[in-house]
Amino acid sequence: MSKDPVPLKAVHHVEFWVGNAKQAAYYYRKAFGFSQLAYSGLETGNRDWIESGGGMRDTIKSHHNVGGLPDDMAMELCEPIRELYKDEVRLLAEFLEVPVAHRQPFPGPGLAVRVMGEATPERTNIVRKACYIVEDELESAAKNGKMELPWQYFAVLLPVKTVGVQGDVRAYGNTIAVRAVQSYDAMTAQALDVPYSVLRKISERITRELKSDVNRVVYDITDKPPGTIEWE
Fold this sequence. Notes:
Layout: H1 21-32, E1 39-41, H2 46-51, E2 76-78, H3 86-95, H4 121-143, E3 152-166, E4 169-183, E5 189-191, H5 196-209, E6 214-219
Parallel strand pairs: 1-2, 4-6
Antiparallel strand pairs: 3-4, 4-5
């Protein structure tokens, strides 16, 4: 976790204040000590605006950094990588010697998009812990030569509960879906053939460490298309 004293919200996007651009500009100026804020930078990439639709393009999914910004934002929008695909962004990051150039993507809106249904603090905390287990086990397996490291990998909390057993007691618990894909530019993706032993260990850890909340783990074998990488 960052030790930066600047409030977390101060480094997030303007959409937190959609409809009140003056408040957004004031908050940024106060947080960073600027007397005047002229630009708002977004990490919008080529895929974002292509999939978000517009004109003759169909809306595949609405990305958080496309649309929704107020007209009177009081700041100039700056999108330096708008015309680049993700593989091109990584090439640029390599050229600039960015140390996290090949870190897996993380959704701009945060873990809430991995909570199907209502994203309450409790449900978001469940998916956060499940994501950690998925990341930890897949990275460990890749490091030990059991498999290749996926391009993106995470957990999704489903909006259904199913019957299970805890000890000798009937119980209802949540279901976690594990997602791991390989991709080049995020426009298409292939579900990774994760070794069964690795998937089994992920399932055992999730159902053991989150046993009061989760009693079932499934693996998503859907490519993109027809499915998207993130579920929402």
